[in-house]
Structure formats: structure tokens, C-alpha cells
Amino acid sequence: MKNKLDGYVIYCKDSDKETPLGVVSDCYDCQALSEYIPTRLKKFLVEIEDKRFYSHNGIDFKGVSRAFVENIKAGHIVQGGSTISQQLARNITRDTRKTVTRKLKETIKAIQIEKQYSKDEILNLYFNNVYFGKNIWGLRTAGLYYYGKEVEKLTQTELLYLLTILRGPNYYAKRPEVIEKRYKAINNILLDRKVISKSRFQKNIRTKLTISKTQLSSFRNVSIPFIANRIDEKRKIIISSIDLKIQEFVEKFVIESKYPVSIIALKNGEVLGFASSYGTDYPFISRSNVGSTLKPFLYCHLRESGISEFEKFDAYKNSLDWEVREVGCYKSQLNIQEALFYSNNNSFINAANQVGFETNLKFLSDILNKPQTDLFPSSVLGATKSGISLYELALAYSNYFNPANLTDTKTECLSILNKVFYEKLGLKIENVFLKTGTTNDNKERYAVLGNADLVYAVLRNENALNDTSKEGSFMNQISRHISSMFKRNLNFVWT
Hints:
By secondary structure, the protein is an alpha+beta fold. The protein contains 20 helices and 16 strands. The strands form five sheets. A five-stranded mixed sheet has the order 5-2-1-7-6. Helix 7 (156-164) packs across helix 9 (176-192), helix 14 (295-304) runs parallel beside helix 16 (345-355) and helix 15 packs parallel to helix 19 (408-425). The chain is elongated, with a radius of gyration of 30 Å.
């Protein structure tokens, strides 16, 4: 059974303008549903595609005979003979094979449709299911994709353009001269049959055919609760928290990555943009260990629990005899600030053990909004029983390091993470932080970065290209893209 939000259109706020982002769908197809189909468009369709629509029961035998004769004369197929009901049956079954079996099934389905629905209902179903090229299905989606408009705002010329490309949207998309020829032919038919007036005909012909394609995405149902600010069930519209520029940025980041990657951006706990190689639900439902990205939280807790900035801890071994991997070789003793900068596991384990694991786990439980039963001692290194989603990780940073709630300890932590940002990315931006983490034998690589306004969390998964470096190319990818999203030298500086 379909989710009740399937077919809803998602909008973002671009200044005072609402911009369509995509459609709720658990598959690749974009199919926005609409209960409003212009009466004049239905009349146009009947005249052009199936003039005996109101008198047949799904099969137009006269039309089939005429098409057969015309095809014989031409020596190739020039007419199809399919009724609107047959075309609807084909769009519903999504079967376009040119076989006798497919045609038979289509015919049976068309007769069933005629028995089940009224003629007006069939036209509504047709315009909600007709294919408009790429992954676009339905009149409403086509209006949003080609014109950025809801159906009721489309002009007659725009409606006629959509009717013009119906027979082969992907074919016509590459042939504007063919579109123009067919558009004129359609207007001539409507004029000859007195469906439009001569003045309307002349206006249609004089109007230049223009489109401005809007990139539409399919948003899976699972992601909607995280981004919906308001849901209008009557209009089947979702007003989201998504920022258009940030959404375009994160989608470009994913498209240009040679590895599977996911990214999400939050401001004050609200999702402003997200994208993933694995689908729009992935940043919210996929959970894993997040490695050293939890160290900044733990750092603040340790400092506030009495660990001084001068106290040294063993960097080569830990008091629990855990075998842990380290990024590289450091001094044998590190203070807690150095341990955070170098992301040294042994030092953190030793400091955490000194404070007491129970209090550390209680703290992490509050930060991550997870029950303490989901945590165990190794959670200080980023491990949990059920894992942490990319959204949960970004939300923890967004909430904890919110500028409105900064303490001296948090500011101290951020100043260290600013040095990490410069060390790893080579970008001198004083108000930006970065923390990375690798898990699952370096197959999952995390980066959380941001400034006073915005937090990005990024996860890169490995594939057959097998980049064996700890972070190298991952940091290069982030460096190439992310600097454009942060302004340099703002007043807000962590010192």
C-alpha cells in the first residue's frame, strides 16, 4: 500500500518565493498527483488523441482500421490507433514492449478501466499517469519540471506545449524544430474543429515556445519527517526546511564524487540540505559507528570533569589494555588538547578512565539522545550498539555547539578543531571547525565541519576504486567543494 504522502510536492523557501524541489516517492520516478486538471486541456486531448473518446468502450475500431490503412500506405507506422484508455493502460502498467502480448494486455486493461471509471475520471487518471520524459510522470510534475509552476498557473500556451510533446517527450526534447511544427499542427486541428477561436489561435502561434527546466528529485517517505515544516493535505504540498542553494550544493557534491558519499547540512537543528549516493533516506536511517567524531563532545566533558589542559596521558598504551589503532606516531605523553588535535585514542581512553566511564557514557547518552543501554565503554571511541545516523551526528554538533549556548570549554574545543581544519584542508578560515573519523577498517570515513551558522556531516563509503589512504583524497574532495560555503574572516572567531 502506498504511503499517504506519495505524490506530494516538496517546496523550499527561496527568499519570498516557493521553489519546487521534488516529489515524495520511494522509487526513482517523480509522479506528483493532482486533483485539478483544466477542463480545456481535457477537451484539447480528446480532439487531438481520441475524438471518439466519449462514444467507445476503450477500443476505437474505426481508429484502428484507419491507422492500419494509413500505415500500409506509408510503408511504416505513422498512426497508432490507441485510445486514451489504452494509453492510460500502458502508462499504468509501464510496459512499452512492441509485442502482441503487450497489446492484448493493454486492450483488456483499457476495457476494465472503461467499466470501472467514468470518462472524466479516466481523463484525470490519464493526466496523473502520462509520461513526460526523463523520470517525469503526470501533468503536475511536468508543469513543475518544464515551467516551475503548479497546474492552475500554467498558461494555455504552456499547456499546449505539454500536449505537444506527449507522444515522445525524450524525442522532442532534442528537436525544437519538430516541436514547433507539431505545436502549429495541433493548433490548426483545434482551430478547424472550433475548439479555439481564430484570435486565440493567432496568439498561440505568435507566442514563443520557451521552457525553463527545474531539477526535480524523488524524496523517499522516510526523509519527510526530518524536513517538513508544514504539510498541506488539500494541495498535496510539503513546505520544507530545505535551503535551495545548500541543496544544490550538496547534490553537486554527491554527483561529482567518485565514491559513494552522503552529506547533510543543519542550521539550529533544522535540515537545510541533504543528498546521498544511496537515496534520500540514507542519511536518516543508515547507522554505523562514527569513530573519532565523538571526541569533541568527550573533550568538553573531560575538561569540565576536572581534567586540566596541562595533565599528560600515555599516548602509546591505555590502562584498559585495549588494542586500538592510531593515525600515526606522537609524543609518548599528550595533554588533552594535543590528544584532540591528533585524535589520539589511547590518551582519550586513559583520561576517560580517570574520570570514570559511567559518567562519560551518561554524558554521551544525553548528547546523542540515546539510552545508556545503547552505549558501552568503547563508545568513547565512537561505537554504539545500534549505531549513529549521519543526521544524528550532525544534529548533535548543531545542538551542542550552538553559538547561543557556547561555554568557555566549548569555545576552547572549537579553537582546536579550527586548527584541525587548517591542518587537514589547508584553508585559513578562522571561524570554521573540522573533526574527522574513520571506522570499519577505513571503509567509512566521516567529517563534521561548520561554523557558527551551519554544520555539515559527510560520510564516504569505499568502493572498488579502493582508496587506501587514511583521509587523503576524502579531504581533497571536501577542500575542493566546501570552502565556497563558508565566508572568511567573520566577526565570530574561536580563540
